[in-house]
Amino acid sequence: MGNELRYICLLETRRLLLVMGVIFALVLFIQYIELPYGDVWSSLFSARNSQVAPAGIFSTGDSSSNPNSSRNSMYTSNLNSTNVNDVHVVSNVTKFFEGNDSNVKYIFESESNKNSEEIFDVDIDPEDENQSKDFLEMSSSSTVQSVVGDNSNDLSVSNYTSESKSSLDHNLVEEIVPTPTLVTPPVVISPSRFISSENMDANSSTSLIPHSLNKSSTGEDAENMLQNKEKLTLLKDDLSTRVSNSSISSIPATKKGVKKPSDTVFPISEMNDMLLQSHSSYPAMKPRWSSAVDQELLNVKSLIENAPIIPKDDKFDINLYRNFSAFKRSYELMEQTLKVYIYSEGKRPIFHQGPLKGIYASEGWFMKLLKANKHFITKKPREAHLFYLPFSSRALEVTLYVPNSHNRTNMVQCLSNYVDMITAKYRFWNRTGGTDHFLVACHDWAPAETKERMANCIRALCNADVKEGFKFGKDASLPETFVRSAQNPLRELGGKPASQRRILAFFAGNMHGYLRPILLNYWENKDPDMKIFGRIRKVKGQMSYVQYMKSSKYCICAKGFEVNSPRVVEAIFYECVPVIISDNFVPPFFETLNWESFAVFVLEKDIPNLKNILLSISKKRYLKMQQRVKQVQQHFLWHTRPVKHDIFHMILHSVWHNRVFQTRRR
Questions:
Q1: Where does the Exostosin GT47 domain start and stop, copy by copy (predicted)?
Q2: Which of 12, 25, 63, 114 is deepest in the core (most CB within 10 A)?
């Protein structure tokens, strides 16, 4: 009997072990399927896998001398790069919403204060300032490598460090693993009709793009060039053959990982029409309950629309403006009426602090000057016509983006949590659905990061792209300004007089995006009048980037990864006529300035005709444009203490203007 019992127990034990073994093997198999590139055992037994420790994310302590390592030190090493979609930073970002600066006089830290400035003051080539530039339209499941760099401007070559020089070879872009779907090369709408520059009225809304000039595609030859991983391929075809080719009208397919050209192009003339239509057609939300500020704005709107005509002004060239009479009246009423409430919630570095140097400086300088302003700021939100959301899109990226993760979910969630917090604490957002709130953001990702919870807000964006959701009549185009010195933002202002500008056209920059390689392919070393380069490196006895800007008639402002480029403002800063080659880009202060009176717009597909387009502008017309560049310059300058009609006031006016014309009767 005893033997039988022992036998039965042994048999049952074996069966139990067999079942457990099968279950264990099944678990291992499932884990293997779920984590084919990870560590199965660590995934089973580590509860911290694929999470970021919030304590280290926002560190502003001493950093490494290596700018790359100092940025990477802001993230913990516990992140499993194969599971970036599981990052749980967002649950901890609410700690930034508990700050209160309402009773603290805002004093922005100087450059010498490393603790406050170090997350912005990264000493690298400004073209590469945003090292996480790799996507804008990727799904969270895409598996792609990073394209290093940004679509921004070059420093004067003397500012490059040895580390920044080696950080990105301008002839090399990292290859990216293809996403499942590819977009075929789009067809571009033909340019607007050409009007002779001799007879062109200063207020004309027609772009300076000759329709009669022979068209050329940047097609197959440029496509082959972009596919070369090692260097740009100089095409063997004769330039005259390319220019005479009028049978192709499409932009080429682009290298994997480089954002493709838009399938629809809105010339500057069409954008003018869209702006005019927006004032009557934009579906602004009616307030849920009435407020005294609504009636004030309705009165202001009527006064602007019925502003007396000013045929001439001693201080301004009225041809620089779409409607000088309306602008002058609107600006005066802004000074008399506007009150802005700034939310005190939110902690640094994402909130209440922005960069004062580099290509994202516009958002930092505006924040600094507005917070210090006693004329426009009110502490009584019921009196406010506008509510400012004081975050920095650059700080958001530096603080929360995990390098090479290709995922910005936590950044979007951070802003969403902020909106949730202020809507729960205050009633003001709910009254208008956020239409009387505004943000000022210069990072390329800002349109995508704010298009959900902040979609109704007035968004002042450097990346002002019609195809990326920019709304005429609501959004404002923010000037992207490259500030070299936070202590002296006007350093090196000005340039040679028109008579001493011997160079017809100049461009230099990294090969970001699909357009710049095409520009260089057609014009680099092809014509002595066209100084078109890649990155300029410091060589003794040779001209620097700034010297070229100061010595050229026309400065080429070619888009990079996105439509915006600090070269537009730089050209004005150095008194060089801007030539904007960036389809669908809405230039700064578009609702106010008549850009065609002082700048040239060239469609991307007309790059082969670039010199002909510039030469078709008469000397008389050029001199007038260059003089107007000098006159409009006042609207693009940062001052440590704001000056009337300067860039600070113009940004505020753009937001004010859109707020006024969105106002509807309840």
A1: 335-615
A2: 63
| Domain boundaries defined on the chain | 27-86, 87-666
What's the CA angle centered on 432, arms 449 and 478, to 5 degrees?
45
β-bridge pairing 552-558 and 386-388 = unpaired
Assess contact for 176 and 226: CB atoms under 8 A: no
pLDDT tens digit sequence for 406-434: 899 999 999 999 999 999 999 999 999 99
Say if CB 629 and CB 320 are below 8 A apart.
no
Mode of pairing for the β-strands spanning 437-441 and 386-388: parallel
> Beta strands 530-532 and 577-581: pairing type?
unpaired
Question: ∠ CA(78), CA(81), CA(82), 5° rounding?
Answer: 125
For residue 499, the SS3 value is helix
CB 485 within 8 A of CB 573: no
Distance CA 562, CA 567 (A): 13
Residue carrying the six token digits 């469609």: 603
SS3 at position 552: strand
Pairing of strands 552-558, 340-342: unpaired
Burial class (CB in 10 A: 0-12, 13-18, 19+), 117: buried
Instruction: Say how many residues make up the chain.
Output: 666
CB 652 within 8 A of CB 338: yes
For 51-78, the pLDDT digits (tens) are 333 333 223 333 333 333 333 333 333 3
Distance CA 85, CA 410 (A): 9
